[in-house]
């Protein structure tokens, strides 16, 4: 995708998103507090009325970005039409993102209005897996998803056949869960780092957009990467610490499913091990901490997640975010290397 189109998308999302968040914050605060006030208080101080529901606004921003991207793509391609599979893939990807975000919105609403915690975790996981499985089957039908897994270090490919679809759906479900965990465990904002998940996701998407830009075949994940990065940037205007609006489960699940869609449509799932290193680190630390506590009844870390541990050790939110951004950028270098390796073996088949 032309760099001019990418720039226009990012600028449109940053400008439009800043306005949209300012417009919606008072309405979402009313859901939480029962009071409506256009004045949202000091931008650099919390007052306890900060709402969730950022996923809804970010979804609207992404619709804006995709619209601008499609128009700009046609303009700069001098009337060239999209490929036969492009529109179905865009539609299917947008649908899976919206369904997962809608589920997060319902849970945010239940949490903010004290209506309970909603469905049990296992049913949420099952629902997500089924949705992702249908998405993967559709991508396979459109010949977008390759059932071969490319191994690094010239170890060749592994052909999975149909079993690749349920495995990929499970992989997407794990990514969504990791994004939620990276934001705040169990949706408890006191245990999160304001803006961390959005910043990590933005750096992930910018790295993915750069890697995909080297190969015309990867234009679809590149567009989604740019659009998601723009939505994250717009959120950070209001969501960076101290946040005036939390991502909530709607926002974190939206970012998780977007990252999953980008990873799957590149046909390089192992690249997530590089550019998704901060999400994986949080997940691994949480899992190890729980296993140690279950076995020895003692805490291994000073928090449920790695960023929670660092926060309890005195790290500021900005220091945690800086280290996370640096690690994601370093991981993006690995993604570039893997993409070049994949291009010579898998993509140019």
Overall description:
This protein is mostly helical. The relative contact order is 0.15. It contains 12 helices and 2 strands. Helix 5 packs across helix 6 (196-212) and helix 5 (164-183) packs antiparallel against helix 8 (248-265). A two-stranded antiparallel sheet has the order 1-2. The model is unreliable at 78-82 (pLDDT under 50).
List its salient traits:
single chain; 349 residues; mainly alpha; 12 helices; 2 strands; 69% helix; globular
C-alpha Rg, in Å? 20 Å
Global mean pLDDT: 87
Overall morphology = globular
Helix-and-strand structural type = mainly alpha
- Taking the alpha carbons of the first and last residues, their distance comes to 21 Å
| Main sheet summary | 2 strands, antiparallel
Residue share in helix: 55-70%
What's the arrangement of strands in the largest beta sheet? 1-2
Strand content: under 5%
- The total count of helices amounts to 12
Would you identify the regions where 5 or more consecutive residues have pLDDT less than 50? 78-82
Order of helices and strands: HHHHEEHHHHHHHH
- Could you give the count of β-strands? 2
Ordered list of secondary-structure elements with their pairings:
Elements: H1 3-33, H2 54-76, H3 86-112, H4 121-141, E1 148-150, E2 157-159, H5 164-183, H6 196-212, H7 219-239, H8 248-265, H9 272-275, H10 277-296, H11 306-312, H12 317-347
Antiparallel strand pairs: 1-2
